[in-house]
Amino acid sequence: MGEFQMTVLTDFDKRLLNLLQGNLPVCSRPFARLGEMLETTEEHVLSRLDDLKREGYLRRIGTFFNSEQLGYHGTLIALRVAEEHIADVAAAINRYAGATHNYEREGKYNLWFTLLTPSRHAEEKILADVTALPGVERLMSLKSNKRYKINVQFKLN
Asked: Which residues form the signal peptide (predicted)?
């Protein structure tokens, strides 16, 4: 079995990750623009991002939209899943485009995820499908009353 080895972040990596957290340019070639900002090439930026993702420093690069303004409905889902089925249920949930933040937790409700759908009907269909998965014992849909958005950025020195 091979051992997973993470490399140490270079100064360049830290500068790149700091920029990505809040300054990804909105343009046709954002990584080329990042390269200009970091005095390197688009190819070098993309190569380092690939490495950082493979090494576990980076999970995803993406935007955040106000889903409600775009007509989407969101809910936080808490599932009670039989231990031997958690991996299969999590994998099934991850296949839904609107499922995010799928995490195993300690406690009676041991698998939690958020779900964004374009309609209540789509949400109901997905939740019925999830409820029917082998090992799912209980599902709670926890609608929010008020939206809070916390912008967390990590300053890497």
From this structure: none
